[in-house]
Amino acid sequence: MKKAVLFLSIALIVLPDVALAQQQQDRMQRPSPPTTRPAPPSRPTPPKPENRPQPPRPGGPSVQPLRPGTGGPSVQPPRPGTGGPQIQPPRPGTGGPAIQPPRPGKPQPPRPVKPQPPHRPGAGRPPHFKPIHRPGFQYPHGYRYRRWSIGLLLPAIFLSSRYYYDDYAYLGVGAPPYGYRWVRYGPDLLLVRTRTRRVVDVIYGAFY
């Protein structure tokens, strides 16, 4: 009798646990409902538009898409009002911008030379004397530079228009007195009396 009661008590204790485990196992074996919503039906995608020429942007040329049969993109020049500089082609007959030739300057008149009184023999260099540049001197055959002094006789070959010097005013020297001539001998200027060929004055270093 006691054993029957014991078995019944055990059965009462175990049966609820077995029923609970069976219910949990049934729940696990059932398929779980889907948690995500079904995707909406896909809409048909419209066809892509063909490449159409884009309007030119300000400041530069626009590149057009490739056209059938052209072989490459065409570059359009900037239209007026786009912001880029407008280059005007040369007009017919001009050939380009006209370049004005430089205007010739007005010729400067030679500076007037203040005339000096006749040079006095033996006076030497005047206070306002200034050497000037002249071409090289060609000595006659057989002659070379010699330092002449007052009182010596100049050879007659130098008493000719080839050796006379008449631009004495640019040196600041007065005109030769009557019967005298200024004669260039190398870098020096000699005042010579033409009748006697005597040297009456010498200005050394008158030319360079």
UniProtKB/TrEMBL annotation:
Pfam families (UniProt xref): RcnB
- Superkingdom of origin: Bacteria
Q: Does the keyword Signal apply?
A: yes
Keyword line: Signal
Q: Which Gene3D superfamilies match?
A: inner membrane protein cigr (3.10.450.160)
Compositional bias segments (type: Pro residues): 31-59, 99-120
Q: What is this protein called?
A: Nickel/cobalt transporter regulator
Q: What is the lineage of its organism?
A: Bacteria, Pseudomonadati, Pseudomonadota, Alphaproteobacteria, Sphingomonadales
